[in-house]
Write a structure and sequence with these properties.
With 250 residues, the chain is an alpha/beta fold. The chain has helices at 19-30, 43-55, 70-84, 107-135, 147-150, 156-176, 194-197, 201-209, 219-229, and strands at 10-13, 34-39, 60-64, 89-92, 138-143, 181-188, 241-244. A 7-stranded parallel beta sheet has the order 3-2-1-4-5-6-7, with helices on both faces. α1 (19-30) packs parallel to α2. The longest helix is centred in the middle third of the chain and has 29 residues, at 107-135. The two termini are 26 Å apart. It binds NADP nicotinamide-adenine-dinucleotide phosphate. NADP nicotinamide-adenine-dinucleotide phosphate binds at residues 14-21, 38-42, 66-68, 93-96, 116, 143, 145, 188, 190-191, 193-196.
Length: 250
């Protein structure tokens, strides 16, 4: 991939205030894209992501909306695409986990997880596809997880939401292909972020033992895979789910 392969492109990264989303936003900006940094509540962190991009010589803007809110999402994406006169790349990264065993799992937590993770990808993709289809070009990259195919005790809602994203990815890939829009996903395993840092030491060691490469992945490694799928070089790749899990599950 050449240094500034995304020059002139406009990208939206949801949940870019920290973790993987932040690394993706910084990486896409370093490759030349103007990046809209989405968040729902962590404004200071989102501002710090924009500042990091600008300090490195890139351009970015804040873009606040809750991906689970269909109306707000549609309006914000339309405003972004109109203001910039294009929207080339959508990275559906925003996600939450509310862990708990099935028998005690609350209805509200089930709904919130599905609405944010799966509903969010649906709302954002629908809003962005309108502009991408018109331009006859676009890239949608979704963040799923190894647990979508592997499963994980205590993560029924999260795993179901991520498996749903994989189905959505494959369906949209077929539906949007005639319009020149590709739709792919990356499925990280155990990545070093605040989400995983919160795990107790015993759980961390247990997961590490399952990873043939013997270490956690980095956010930069996930960002590099997203950047490939968002690049012009990936024009013939669609409907694919790329595992980034150190060999943990294939
Ligand atoms: P994280 O550190 O918890 O960050 C989540 C991001 O999503 C934050 O920027 C948060 O911003 C945003 N967000 C949450 N709810 C939102 C909403 N309703 N609307 C808009 N933004 C929202 O997560 P991460 O570990 O970087 O994970 C990023 C993605 O990768 C997720 O989809 C996750 O499921 C997936 N993933 C992560 C791992 C891992 O090991 N970390 C593994 C597999 C998959 P606010 O605070 O402003 O809401």
């Amino acid at each position: 991939m050449s240094g500034k392969a995304l020059e002139g492109r406009v990208a939206l990264v949801t949940g870019a205030s920290r973790g993987i989303g932040r690394a993706v936003a910084i990486d896409l900006a370093a490759r030349g894209a103007h990046v809209a940094v989405n968040y729902s509540s962590s404004e200071d962190a989102a501002r710090s992501c924009v500042a990091a991009i600008e300090e490195a010589g890139g351009t970015a803007e804040l873009c606040r909306f809750d991906v689970g809110d269909a109306e707000a999402t549609t309006a914000a994406i339309a405003a972004l695409a109109k203001a910039r006169a294009r929207l080339d790349i959508l990275v559906n990264n925003a996600g939450i986990t509310i862990d708990g065993l099935l028998l005690r799992y609350r209805e509200d937590d089930w709904r919130r997880t599905l609405d944010t993770n799966l509903g969010g990808v649906f709302h954002c993709s629908r809003a962005a596809a309108r502009f991408m289809a018109r331009a006859r070009e676009g890239r949608i990259v979704n963040l799923t997880s190894v647990v979508a195919s592997m499963g994980n005790a205590g993560q029924a809602a999260y795993a179901a939401s991520k498996a749903g994203i994989e189905g959505l990815t494959r369906a949209l890939a077929r539906e949007l292909a005639p319009r020149g829009v590709t739709v792919n996903a990356v499925a990280p395993g155990f990545i070093d972020t605040e989400m995983t840092a919160a795990l107790p030491e015993a759980a961390r060691s247990m997961y590490l033992a399952l990873i043939p490469l013997g270490r956690l992945g980095t956010v930069e490694e996930v960002a590099a895979a997203v950047a490939y799928l968002a690049s012009p070089e990936a024009a013939y790749v669609t409907g694919h789910v790329l595992a980034i899990n150190g060999g943990m599950y294939t």
